[in-house]
Amino acid sequence: xxxxxxxxxxxxxxxxxxxxxxxxxxxxxxxxxxxxxxxxxxxxxxxxxxxxxxxxxxxxxxxxxxxxxxxxxxxxxxxxxxxxxxxxxxxxxxxxxxxxxxxxxxxxxxxxxxxxxxxxxxxxxxxxxxxxxxxxxxxxxxxxxxxxxxxxxxxxxxxxxxxxxxxxxxxxxxxxxxxxxxxxxxxxxxxxxxxxxxxxxxxxxxxxxxxxxxxxxxxxxxxxxxxxxxxxxxxxxxxxxxxxxxxxxxxxxxxxxxxxxxxxxxxxxxxxxxxxx
Length: 277
What we know:
mainly beta, disordered N terminus, Aspartyl protease, Peptidase_aspartic_dom_sf
């Protein structure tokens, strides 16, 4: 009986551990993790995009109405991105992610399928979920799991800044101070960006003219001409990295998941630390 009880305890712990992890999937330079969306009596398990550049969660409008049965009269229209773009919003009953249930989650509702087409997720996990604590991204096992934000950092540490340090950037942006060709600049670590983006005036040389796919919450997927900067070396802290960039039109650059080159890492929102393992 005692051995049976111990076996049950081990099985219970294993079950809890498994539920506290979510499998990571990488596709088209984007990162997805398993999550469950609950609304009224509806439950859906879906791969959800992890987007550190998005302040709130976003749910696809067709999925919200047809699958989750969110009523249109629940939606509100608000301004986003400090532009005239309009997007609806709603509360979802709960989201289950990495062993924790988040109740009454406020989400944007957008026609993700119509905008992003073949790249469209049904659900995007934004910073409102991620900033609840710290997260370990294990690239060897392809999992994401909660992490104790009080643990002593042992890897390479980058202390990030946000809109409190730089009022001209979006709320919840992860801002890393950097240098490109000796010039000080800033990058936002944005896992929802397909491309690394560089500000004007930092590239030494003649950029290539390329055709690239582009889309954002206010513009459907289309092909546009862009300037490609190859093999740009930049520094964060004492470390140097080299990546290809396109020239963006914002006051900060963007670094997507490619920046970490397959490193396991910890995002510690409580301490505003990016730790490379």
